[in-house]
Amino acid sequence: MKYYWINFFFFNLAVSLLSCALLYAFGRYAFQIIFFTNTNWLVIWTLFLGWCIAQISLTSFIQIFINNSKAATIIGYLLSIFSTIVGQTICTVIYPFPSELPFLLKLYPPIALSRGVYLIGNSCANNSSCYTDIFRMNEELYRIYAALYGWIFMFIFSIYLHEMIQQQYGTTKVPSFLKGILKFLNKGKEENLVD
Q: What range defines the domain where residue 73 resides?
């Protein structure tokens, strides 16, 4: 099963990063949008990478409750698109800058992405100076980064739940599934593990 999850994560990460690269290339080079041309690339790509990780983790979590992984992925991304529209509304109407978005809303990836894009765009529009350094940004943006990258723990938890909850095909594992994680992390030191 570990190869399935490794393949699942890196395949979806590659697809997500490819779509982010296309967005970045068109925004920066083809259309020369100020958001992309004047903002430090590291600020944008840190947000994109965090969002990709969070989306993959959210999809794997949804996959636990839906037996078909393709259907779970489609439902996850449709939910993401709808939530991004709602998130954009929340960021611009309910919590406009300088109001800070509540932390619980930042935990949901599409809303966190919407807020991150809103804050970066707001910096470019209102201050007429986009973020040129990743160490000199709005503090809320750092919390958004932390919330997005924190989803890697949800991915690991999703793998655990996937093994524990009865699926359509296969059987559940006993809580000793944690031994499998330890074996995976120790690679080759399996003989030292106590049964």
A: 2-184
